[in-house]
From TrEMBL:
The keyword Nucleotide-binding applies. DCTP binds at R106, S107, S108, M109, G110, R111, D124, T132, L133, E134, Q153, Y167, K175, Q179. Homotrimer. The lineage of its organism: Archaea, Methanobacteriati, Methanobacteriota, Methanomada group, Methanobacteria. GO terms for molecular function: dCTP deaminase (dUMP-forming) activity; dCTP deaminase activity; nucleotide binding. Its EC number is 3.5.4.30. It is an enzyme of class 3 (hydrolase). It catalyses: dCTP + 2 H2O = dUMP + NH4(+) + diphosphate. This is dCTP deaminase, dUMP-forming. Residues 163-183 are annotated as: Disordered. Belongs to the dCTP deaminase family. GO terms for biological process: dUMP biosynthetic process; dUTP biosynthetic process; nucleobase-containing small molecule interconversion. The active site is at E134.
Length: 202
């Protein structure tokens, strides 16, 4: 696998092999080996729930554990120390079947104690939609986040061959395909959870 350079990123964008919309300032957003992405205006945060834990086998709707926030222009989302929130990139991304991508936080955000993903920084070939950001504040001070602010970067890597069943393939359970806002975990749709009555593992 090889990481695309800025000149290859520009070429792939020009040829429509990679789609990033809206890419409003390519000269500033395209970095030597990545593209800076901005944060959108919708967030999700956990409510205070009187439950001992989040259990994917619980019949409760996981959506009820979270509340949504929509920011008006110029309004800040404040993430406090120890808090976790979901957001999405301002841009939507579409990948071909022979590229994977990774979302990495920007150094300027990391130096404030803000991480942009917990574990889901990997983007499958064939993915299309806005990218969910799993934001945590591991610092000591609250931090303000503004819509349109560059908070992360996307890195593209070539594969040894195109995927036989890329993300979104009819035979693949692509739960987050086409997402355009922060989406609560769909872990209940995982086959080992969904089909728990037929398995001895759970």
């Amino acid at each position: 696998m090889a990481i695309l350079s800025d000149q290859d990123i520009i070429k792939y964008l020009d040829e429509g092999k990679i789609i990033i919309e809206p890419l409003e300032d390519p000269a500033r957003q395209i970095q030597p080996s990545s593209v800076d992405l901005r944060i959108g205006n919708e967030f999700k945060g956990f409510r205070i729930i009187r439950k001992p834990c989040i259990d994917p086998l619980d019949k409760s709707d996981l959506e009820s554990y979270m509340e949504s926030f929509h920011l008006d222009k110029g309004e800040a989302f404040i993430i406090h120390p120890g808090e976790f929130a979901l957001a999405t990139t301002y841009e939507a991304v579409k990948l071909p079947d022979n590229l994977v991508a990774r979302v990495e936080g920007r150094s300027s955000m990391g130096r404030l104690g803000i991480t942009m993903h917990v574990t889901a920084g990997y983007i499958d070939p064939g993915f299309e939609g806005k990218i969910t950001l799993e934001i945590s504040n591991i610092g000591k001070m609250p931090v303000a986040l503004y819509t349109g602010q560059r908070v992360c970067q996307i890195v593209f890597e070539t594969m040894t061959s195109p995927s036989l069943r890329p993300y979104g393939h009819p035979e693949r359970d692509s739960k987050y395909m086409g997402q355009d806002k922060p989406v609560t975990s769909k872990i209940k749709q995982d086959y080992e959870i969904r089909d728990r009555k037929q398995t001895k593992l759970l």
